[in-house]
Amino acid sequence: MSRNKTAGYKGPYGYQKRREGDGEWDFNWCDVGWLRENFDHSYMEEHVRICHFRNHYELTRKNLMVKNLKRYRKTLEREAGRIEASKCDFFPRTFELPSEYHLFVEEFKRSPGSTWIMKPVARSQGKGIFLFQKLKDIMDWKKDGSRSEEQRDETQVESYVAQRYIENPYLISGRKFDLRVYVLVTSYIPLKAWLYRDGFARFSSTRFSLTSIDDQYVHLTNVAVQKTAPDYDPEKGCKWQMQQLRRYLTARHGTETIEALFKDVDNIFVRSLQSVQKVIINDKHCFELYGYDILLDQDLKPWLIEVNASPSLTASSQEDYEMKCCLLEDTLHIVDMEGRLTGREKRVGGYDLMWNDGPVYREDVNLETLGSACFTANTHLGCVNDRKKQLRQLLKPFPGKKRI
Amino acid sequence: MMDEGTELSLTIAQIVQRLKATHLHSQIERQAKECLHRPEIQLESLKEDVRNFLKASGWERKLQNAVYRELHVQPLPSHPAAPPEHAKEPLAYMRKAQVNWEKRILKSLNSMCTELGVPLARKRPAVEQKELTNKWNEMGTDEPDLSRFRPVYAPKDFLEVLISLRNPNHDSSEEASAKSHWGLIQVPLHDRDIPQMREAYSELSLTTGQLGIDDHTHVPPDLFESEHTRIGKKVVNEQDSAAAQQYSRQGCPTGLRADLWALILNSTNEPEDVMHYEQLKAGVIHHDLLVDNLIYKDVKLTASNDDYYFVFEDFLYQVLLCFSRDTAVLEHFSYNSATPPKSYIQGKVGVEEFAVVYPPNGVIPFHGFSMYVAPLCFLYNEPSKLYSVFREMYVRYFFRLHSVSSSTSGIVSLCLQFERLLQTHLPQLFYHLREIGAQPLRIAFKWMVRAFSGYLSTDQLLLLWDRILGYDSLEIVAVLAAAVFAFRAENLMEVTSLTSAEVSVPRPQAGRLSPTHTHTGFHSGPWLLK
User: Fold this and answer.
1) Shortest CA distance to B130 belongs to which of B286, B317, B323?
2) B29-56: per-residue pLDDT in tens?
3) Peptide bond before A190: cis, by omega within 30 degrees of 0?
4) Residues 212-241 of B with CB under 8 A from A
5) H or E segment and range at residue B122
6) Which of A324-328, B338-342, B505-509 is least confident?
C-alpha cells in the first residue's frame, strides 16, 4: 500500500511528491487547491481516503459559515424554541459585504461607538484584516445602486465580512489570546467527530488596548502575524499549551466554572458541525481535520472566530512540532487504513469521540446507568494526554479481533 | 540552656509584643468594644462572653493564624547571653564565610556603579515619573539599554563559595576513603537520615494518597481525589492556617491552591496591605535605583524567555521593583545569616546614624531571582496579593537558598543532603560521575537554588512547592534532585563528560523535567525514604 503526500508536511510516514498524472494513491493529504481541481475527476476505490470534504468551504469560508449558522439557528428556533436556538449565539453579529451592506448599516447605527472587524472571506493567516469604527473606512464595500455598470465591473471588491469586534476579550497579564483546537470529522451523515486533547493558546505579543485599533499586532493573534511584529522574538514563543491554559484558568476561577466553560466550547463544535451537516456532500472517502479558532471574553464566554480546513502544521518550537506530529499520527490511526480498530472506540490516542450521531458520554450508558442524571461528555480538551499508553493498549494485537 | 518553660514564656512574650503593633490587634480591640452592645454579652460573664463572640465571628481564628505565622518567622531560641548574630547563624565559620561573600557582592556592585557612572539611587524628574505611572501596567514594553549591566552574581559563583567552606575545627586530613564524603561540600553538617525522613515525611509514603500521582487519569477520582478536594474546601471555609499547612502535604487541588497558600502564609489582602503596596509603588515612581536595572535585566533574560512565564513579564516588574523598596523585609535579617549591605551618606562613613541600607530591602538580586516570583503569577493576578504572597515566601524560604548558613533548609544543607543521598543509594553512579569530572552537584545546584522554578513544568512545580509549604522545609528539594539522578541512573552511567552528563539528565523540550520524572521523583522520594 503506497502512501503519497502532496503537501510539504513532515510526518512519521515521510512523504513523496505526487508524480504528475499519477492517479494511483490510497491516501491523499492534499491541499484545497488540488481538491478543487481534481476531486470531481478522480475515481476512488472503496478503501481510499482523502483529507478534505468536497465542499468543506461551507464551514470554513467566513461568509458561508455565518450563513449556515444563521440558517441553522432559525430552524432551531422554529422547531425547538428560543432557548435551544440561543445555544447558537456563539458568533458575533456578522454581515457579508457588499451584499448585506444595508443590513449591516442598520446594525452599525444601533450600536454607536462600537468597533467592527473586517475580514476577507477567503484569505488566511490574518491577511487583509482591519478594524474600523467609522463607516467611511469601508466605503469601498458600499452597495451603491448609483454606480454605473462600468464602474462596478471595473472595481470588483473582494468579498468581506464585517463582524462585531469583541471589545472585552479575556486577558492574561494584559494580553489577548485565542485558542486553536483540533476537531476531526470522519463523517457528516451520520455525524462523527473527534476532539483532540492538545491545542494551544496564541498570545498577541503586545498589550491589549482599544486605543490603537490600527495596530494589528495588538488585535490579531495569528502566529503568522505575530512573527512579523517588530518586537517578536522567536526565542520568546507566544503560545501556551492548552493544558497550561486550562490549569491557569482553573487556578483563577475554580474547577466548576472552567468545566462549564469547556462544556460551552464543546457546544460550539457540535452546533457548527450540525449547521452544515445537510449541506456538506458526505463521502465515505473523506475525512477532515479542522482547526477551530475560539476567543474567550471577560465573562468567560467562548466565541467562534473561524474554522480552518487546513490548519497550519508548521511548528514554532520543539514542543509544537511534537504535538503536531502526534496529532497527525493519531489522525491516521482514526482514519485507520490498516483496519485495526473495531469502530466502537471512544478514544484513540489523544482524540476523544465527541459526537457519534448523538452525544458521547464518558460513562457507559446501559440499562443500569440510564436512570442516573449525571452523564459527563466524553471530551478532555486541555486535559492530560497520555496517548502513548492508551495506544499501546488499544492497538495490542488481539486474536480474533475483527473490524466492523 | 533555658528550660522549656522559660523558653515558651519568652516566645509568647515576643509574639505578643509583635502582634500588639499590628492592624489585627486594633481590629480585634475594636470588635471587642463594639460587641459590648450585643444582647448576649452579660456583665457577670463578660470575659467569657466576649471570648465566645470573638470565636464565633472568626476573629479568634484570625488571631490563631497570625500567631501561627509568627511562629514560622521566629529566630531560633537561644541563650539570653548569646549575641544577636547567633540567632542569625550559630556557627562562626559560616558567619565569616557569609560576611566575606557579602563583601565580594558589594564590591562587584560598587565597581559596576563607578564603571557605568550610574548612581545607586536617583530621584526621577517629574516627566519621567509621569511616564512611568502611565506605563505601570506594561513596563515590559520598555526596551532600555541594559547591555552595560551585568548580573551581580550567578548561582555558579555562589557554588564556588560553598565548595570552599571549611570548618576549622574539623580534622579533614584523613585519607579519602570509601567512608569519606565524595561530594563537593566538605562541611560536617548534621542532616536527617533516611529513617528520620521517612517518619517526618510520612504523608509522602506510597500508601498515602497524593495529588500529582493519585489523581492521574487512570485512577478513579473517588479513590482519593474527590475526598481530598472536599476536605480542601472545608479547610478554606474554616480559614485555618495550621490545617491548610497540614493539608498541603498531600498536594493542593488546582482550584483551591491560591486560597490555601494564602492561608498557610497568612497573606491577607486587607486595605492596609493594598495601601502598603501602593506606597511601595509610589516609591518606585519617585526614585530610580541601580538594582532596578538588574531586575529588568534578569526578567528579560530569564522569565521573558520562558515558555510558561513570558506572559507575566509585567507582573514581575510590578512585584520585584516594589520588593526592593520594602523595608519591612529587613525584619527577616534577624534570622537570616545574611546582613543587608549598608551605605553611608557622603562624608559620614562609619557613622551609624547616617547609614542607609541598600537596596532598601537589603536583598541584592542575582541572576535567576525573578524565577522565585514567576510561578506565583499563575495563582494570583492582583498585584498587591501577588506581592504579599511572594514576600512571605521569600522571608520564610527563598532567602535560605542564597545565604551561607547551617540551617537544615539552607542551601548548604540541601547540597550536602543531595550528595549524601546519592552517595548512599547510588554509589556506583556517583563514583562514575566523579571520575569523569562531572560532580553531580554541579548539575543539580542550579535546580535547588531556584527551588526548581524554570526546571519543572508549572503544575509539577506547584505540587513541589505545596510540599515545601506543607512541611515548612526546603529539604524536599534535595530529595527531588537526588531522585532525578536516580531516575536517569542508567543513562548517566554511560556518559563520559560533564557536558554530556548535563544533556543526559532530563532536559526535554523546554529544558524541563517532564511530569514522569517528577512523578518518579515523588515516588522515588518515598522510595529513597524506604
Assistant:
1) B286
2) 898 888 888 888 888 888 888 888 889 8
3) yes
4) 216-218, 229
5) strand B121-123
6) B505-509
Identify the CA nearest to B302 among candidates B363, B367, B391.
B367
Q: Which three cell numbers stand for residue A233?
A: 522574538
Please spell the DSSP secondary structure of A294-329, one letter per residue. EEEBTT--EEEEEEESS-----SSHHHHHHHHHHHH
The torsion defined by the Cα of B217, B219, B221 and B224, in degrees rounded to 10, comes to -130
Q: Which amino acid is at B21?
A: A
Strands A27-29 and A49-50: parallel
For residue range B109-164, what is the model confidence (pLDDT) as tens digits? 888 888 888 888 889 999 999 999 988 988 887 777 788 888 888 898 999 999 99
Instruction: List residues in chain A touching B: CB distance below 8 A.
Output: 172-175, 203, 206-207, 231, 233, 235-240, 243-244, 247-248, 250-256, 258, 317-319, 322, 383-384, 386
Q: How is chain B split into domains, by residue range?
A: 4-82, 91-157+268-393
Strand pairing class (A94-97; A116-120): unpaired
Q: Each residue of A200-226: pLDDT tens digit?
A: 999 987 777 766 666 555 566 655 555
Q: What is the DSSP string of A6-18?
A: -S----TT---PP
Is B137's CB within 8 Å of A384's CB?
A: no
Q: Which helix (H) or strand (E) holds B411?
A: helix B411-425
Beta bridge partners of B456: B453, B513
**Radius of gyration over every alpha carbon of chain B, rounded to an integer in angstroms:** 24
* Interface ipTM: 0.80
Whole-angstrom distance, CA of residue B475 vs CA of residue A219: 46
Whole-Å CA distances, B510 to A316, B71, B154, B458, B460: 13, 39, 21, 12, 14
Measured between beta carbons, the chain B residues lying within 8 angstroms of A252 are 258, 379, 381
DSSP state of B405: -
Give the gap in angstroms from C-alpha B228 to the nearest C-alpha of chain A: 14
Residue type, A48: V
Q: Beta strands A175-187 and A171-172: pairing type?
A: antiparallel
Coil, helix or strand at residue A187: strand
Mean pLDDT of chain A: 82
Q: Which of B141, B215, B259, B307 to mutate to test the interface with A (most CBs of A within 10 A)?
A: B307
CB B235 within 8 A of CB B247: yes
| H or E segment to which residue A247 belongs | helix A242-253
Contact A167, A115 (CB under 8 A): yes
Return the closest-CA partner of residue B167 out of B92, B102, B99.
B92
- CA distance linking residue B67 with residue B185, whole number of Å: 37
Q: What angle do CA B176, B161, B420 make, to 5 degrees?
A: 45
What is the distance, to the nearest Å, from the Cα of residue B212 to the centroid of all Cα atoms in its chain?
21
Instruction: Please tell me the distance from the alpha carbon of residue B162 to that of residue B153, in angstroms, as a whole number.
Output: 14
